[in-house]
């Protein structure tokens, strides 16, 4: 029969963290007795006869455990312990006081100055070893905590460097996104288009723009991609490439006739085309709302599609504000969605504001939203303001309404003023 030898649960004790023990006692005999036991247990030992000499050793060498007598000429044990605790150290030092005192008040004083353990003279070897083992457990926990803090500090530093790199990239991304709106205003004869675009973070999901739409016409668009951040901004960049170019080959809103002349496609066809492209080319959970309009610069007729976007606000020349449109589904929700075209006629002095929901849903300090009524009142108050100056006032009033400059959503708008 083969014998089964049971292995111990642990093959060996964990390595000691006590590299150096310092004995401090004015009695040479007491030091010799304690040193013999400590060296037999495998500890490196340094000894001295006064607390003053011990302090010099502690300043020069990393002492892990101190066994000090209480009563010594000159500086006594508690005074030495207090001075030892005041030394700058990278790690903790365990302090054991040897004493013949047993009064509670004396023990409390020793704890107050930083002692960890007490041993009563004459010292029992087994009790001493138990006290040292307790000290080693404390030092081991302190070492583990220090290592974890070091790893945490290293990880935080790496994360900080990574965050700084991402932050720098996002700053550049913001510049690139802002460059998608190259012209913030442009005149078309007696009419003028002005744009407002302010992301709530580094980059956002809103996009506004315009494009010449053939002879005597201009195209306007206001887009709001669901969500915020980098993925939304990438979709706005894709949409900017599809709608902003004046080239009929690159702008899906334009096409060339047989004679080579550029003409604009009907707004409902443009949005349906965008919806198909979104489902065929982009595998994403995002969707977007859009208000796409084509305005005749001669007649003032504006044909538009409202796909989930807030209602356009028409401000007549006399200051009155009305909201128009028939709603509609956002782009990207249903592959076979269809979109309806609406039409309105602008008269001389009229203007239209295509605003994102960041404006109408802007919350006040009490949580109330600006809403259509608030936007209407804002436009009526500032009916005399024109172009970019009007949009600057809109931004300032939104900040005042919210009570803070960091608004919770992207803010964007297209202002078309018919001359």
Automatic annotation (TrEMBL):
Gene Ontology molecular function terms on file: phosphatase activity
Cited PROSITE patterns: RESPONSE_REGULATORY (PS50110)
One Pfam family named in its UniProt record: SpoIIE
SMART domains for this protein: PP2C_SIG (SM00331), REC (SM00448)
Biological process, per Gene Ontology: phosphorelay signal transduction system
Swiss-Prot/TrEMBL keywords: Hydrolase, Phosphoprotein
Entry-annotated residues carrying 4-aspartylphosphate: 69
Residues covered by the Response regulatory domain: 20-136
Protein name stated in the entry: Sigma-B regulation protein RsbU (Phosphoserine phosphatase)
């Amino acid at each position: 029969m083969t014998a089964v030898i049971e292995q111990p649960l642990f093959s060996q004790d964990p390595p000691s963290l006590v590299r150096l023990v310092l004995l401090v006692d004015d009695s040479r005999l007491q030091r010799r007795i304690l040193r013999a036991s400590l060296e037999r247990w495998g500890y490196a030992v340094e000894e001295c006869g006064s607390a003053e000499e011990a302090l010099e050793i502690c300043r020069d060498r990393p002492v892990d455990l101190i066994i000090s007598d209480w009563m010594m000429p000159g500086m006594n044990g508690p005074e030495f312990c207090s001075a030892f605790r005041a030394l700058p150290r990278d790690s903790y030092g365990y302090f054991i006081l040897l004493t013949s005192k047993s009064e509670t008040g004396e023990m409390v004083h020793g704890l107050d100055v930083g002692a960890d353990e007490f041993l009563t003279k004459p010292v029992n070897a087994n009790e001493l070893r138990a006290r040292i083992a307790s000290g080693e457990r404390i030092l081991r926990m302190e070492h583990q905590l220090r290592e974890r803090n070091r790893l945490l500090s290293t990880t935080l530093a790496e994360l900080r460097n990574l965050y700084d790199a991402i932050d720098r990239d996002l700053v550049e991304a913001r510049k690139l996104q802002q460059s998608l709106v190259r012209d913030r205003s442009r005149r078309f004869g007696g009419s003028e288009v002005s744009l407002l675009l302010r992301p709530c973070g580094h980059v956002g999901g809103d996009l506004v723009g315009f494009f010449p739409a053939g002879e005597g016409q201009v195209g306007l668009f206001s887009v709001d991609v669901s969500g915020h951040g980098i993925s939304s901004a990438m979709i706005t960049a894709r949409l900017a490439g599809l709608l902003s170019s004046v080239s009929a080959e690159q702008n899906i809103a334009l096409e060339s006739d047989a004679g080579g002349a550029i003409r604009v496609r009907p707004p409902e066809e443009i949005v349906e085309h965008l919806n198909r492209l979104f489902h065929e080319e982009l595998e994403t959970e995002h969707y977007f709302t859009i208000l796409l309009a084509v305005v005749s610069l001669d007649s003032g007729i504006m044909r538009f599609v409202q796909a989930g976007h807030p209602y356009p606000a028409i401000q007549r020349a006399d200051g009155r504000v009305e909201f128009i449109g028939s709603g509609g589904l956002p782009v990207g929700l249903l592959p076979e969605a269809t979109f309806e075209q609406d039409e309105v006629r602008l008269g001389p002095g009229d203007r239209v504001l295509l605003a994102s929901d960041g404006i109408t849903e802007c919350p006040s300090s009490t949580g109330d939203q600006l809403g259509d009524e608030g936007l209407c009142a804002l436009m009526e108050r500032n009916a005399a303001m024109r172009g970019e100056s009007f949009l600057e006032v809109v931004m300032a009033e939104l900040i005042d309404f919210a009570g803070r400059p960091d608004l919770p959503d992207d803010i964007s708008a297209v202002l078309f003023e018919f001359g």
